[in-house]
Design brief:
alpha+beta; Outer membrane efflux proteins (OEP); Transporter; efflux transmembrane transporter activity; MdtP/NodT-like; OMP_efflux
């Protein structure tokens, strides 16, 4: 019910309705300010990893798989079911067995006695699959974190390149101003002004292209935790922080204990459990039955009992045992093949990381200082009329190319570092 009673007294009294509207306006504005502040806060690698682990659908399915296996374990742990039956003989015939005169009604209760530890073998097989799913979840988590790191590094590198593009635009604008001033003084032809304007336009186009690519990279990163919109404006990280590294032999030793290899160990246990289950099914089960029989003709009741045993079950089950043994042995060779593949990938990543870090140091300590000084001297020489516009532009391009090469080398080092950490399931020293 609408009320017109004021909530404030005096000159600026407000009705309940007006106060209610203002309250929600203020509340919505505060929420919007909080959202803007959250969106403006930079995204760190640890934040991206936390979001991906909490929200990525690829990891959520493992909980459902475990729930399903727990349900199958409950079923596997059950004893054979009891079966009740009824049988009527010698009824609705002719002569002495017409109607129910000679009928015999038998009520039975039957079941199976499992031998060879079949129930325990079934439970063990499910338990081993539970362990396999856990190992697969660890491997999938590691793979996901590797993807997050790689996309984060690639996006961070593009963010750095966008800053270089902004510097290139500023440099092109400064160049245009200098060339225009010299042209007005009659010290350089007007054609150089036109070329400087074209260079500025080209720099702006490249900046726009990088901005568009950065938006796509951010979206690709956000998709790893299930977001279809980007809620962060920039990434926070050091593209040139590499840390120390152990020897290749030490890193490869860790690979044998990584989740990628532990999956094979868990699968090996699954195959062993399947072998045990197949062997347990080679034992003969005893089917038993007891009952009560009612004979209408003589008006008497008698008990019945019986059992049955399958013949030659071991021979009939040899194929299953053989197939289970072959599946187990196959896992060993798959593990060895995977280790060889991981050795190759780790070696390549290790070598590329080492080479890229060395390249970063050389570019930083030698190329950039030399090219920066060369650009300064070339600009001064151009302004004094001793160097041409072409020579000045060549010095600019060389410096910009060296800066981009520095970012590319650092990116390559970090991407290979992320791969090494993914393969070994451990961060490198000093991270």
């Amino acid at each position: 019910m609408h009320s017109n009673f004021p909530v404030l007294t005096g000159r600026y009294a407000l009705s309940y309705h007006t106060f209610y509207v203002l309250f929600w306006v203020i509340f919505a504005c505060s929420l919007n300010a909080t959202a803007v502040q959250a969106a403006e806060s930079p995204l760190t690698l640890s934040d991206a990893m936390s979001r991906a682990m909490a929200q990525n659908p690829r990891l959520q399915v493992f909980g459902l798989r475990l729930d399903g296996l727990q349900g199958r374990r409950i079923t596997a742990d059950l004893n054979p079911a009891l079966e009740a039956g009824a049988e009527v003989e010698n009824f609705l015939g002719t002569g002495d067995v017409r109607g129910l005169v000679g009928a015999e009604l038998t009520l039975t209760l039957s079941s199976t006695i499992e031998l060879g530890g079949q129930r325990q073998a079934r439970v063990s097989a499910i338990d081993s699959r539970l362990g396999l799913v856990e190992a697969e979840r660890r491997a999938e988590t590691l793979d996901l974190l590797g993807q997050v790191t790689q996309r984060f590094v690639a996006t961070l590198a593009l963010q750095e390149k966008l800053q270089l593009a902004a510097d290139a635009v500023s440099l092109a604008q400064s160049t245009l101003d200098i060339v225009t001033r010299r042209a007005e003084q009659g010290a350089t032809p007007q054609a150089e002004v036109l070329r400087a304007r074209a260079a500025l336009t080209q720099s702006q186009i490249e900046q726009s292209r990088l901005q568009s690519e950065l938006v796509s990279r951010k979206m690709a990163l956000a998709l790893l935790w299930g977001d279809t919109s980007v809620e962060f404006t920039q990434l926070q990280g050091d593209l040139f922080q590499f840390g120390a590294s152990d020897s290749f032999e030490s890193l490869y030793q860790r690979v044998s204990d990584s989740p990628a290899i532990q999956v094979y160990a868990s699968e090996q246990r699954v195959r062993e459990a399947e072998i045990q289950l197949a062997r347990s099914q080679s034992e003969s089960d005893i089917n038993w039955q007891v009952g009560v029989r009612r004979m209408e003709e003589i008006d008497d009741i008698a008990f019945t009992a019986g059992f049955s045993v399958p013949l030659f079950p071991a021979q009939r089950n040899r194929g299953e045992v053989r197939a289970a043994l072959a599946a187990r042995d196959e896992i060993r060779f798959q593990r060895e093949a995977t280790l060889l593949n991981l050795h190759s990938r780790l070696f390549d990543a290790y070598q590329q990381r080492q080479q890229s870090i060395a390249a970063v140091e050389q570019i930083r300590s030698q190329m950039l200082p030399n090219l920066s000084e060369a650009l300064t001297q070339t600009r001064e020489a151009y302004e004094s009329g001793r160097y041409s516009y072409v020579e000045w532009m060549a010095a600019q391009r060389e410096l910009l190319a060296a800066q981009r090469a520095l970012v590319d080398a650092a990116t390559t080092a970090l991407l290979n570092q992320a791969l090494i950490e993914q393969l070994t399931a451990q961060p490198l020293a000093g991270r």
